[in-house]
Amino acid sequence: MKYLALxxxxxxLSVQATPELCFDEAGRDYGIDPILLMAISxxxxxxxxxxxxxTSAGGTEDICAMQLNSNNFGKxxxxxxxxADLLNNPCICVYSGAWILARNFQAxxxxxxxxGIYNAGPRPELMKARREYAKIIKSIYTVLIARKQILEAxxxxxxxxxxxxxxxxxxxKTSANKxxx
Length: 181
Description:
Blueprint: H1 2-16, H2 23-30, H3 34-45, E1 52-53, E2 62-63, E3 68-69, H4 73-77, H5 83-88, H6 90-108, H7 112-120, H8 127-152
Antiparallel strand pairs: 1-2, 2-3
Helix pairs in contact: 1-8, 2-3, 2-6, 3-8, 6-7, 7-8
């Protein structure tokens, strides 16, 4: 029953994902499957570009559709991206989330553990939280891919089932001194 509810939620939200969220463009520019970016946004904010979570760990906040943590604001400031930009321009939010995920892929490899780091961070003691988050994203991603396959069945276009090279889709071993960025 829980899975069925997840399927309906993902399908209804993905239909509402408007082009201004820029999943396709950000995915293309950062070499990330746009459906993976959408899956993260569905989990993080239900695709709400103005979402604010002011109760994050350590007194930080998460904002916009990609729920970017305020710990990243300093890095984004180098690109003249402000908190207001993230909340008022959904495309900037998605691009910023894709940038953070791409940095995770660079530091830890293109795998589900790096996706988990997007939410939980790289510290070894957070491995369980990372894996749980990655499992949720993988479930949403799988539903979105299934939906895409159904919609593209008439055209005959092949659709991948993993955003990563299957041979390289392994859990990343995290050392204490390795940090994204």
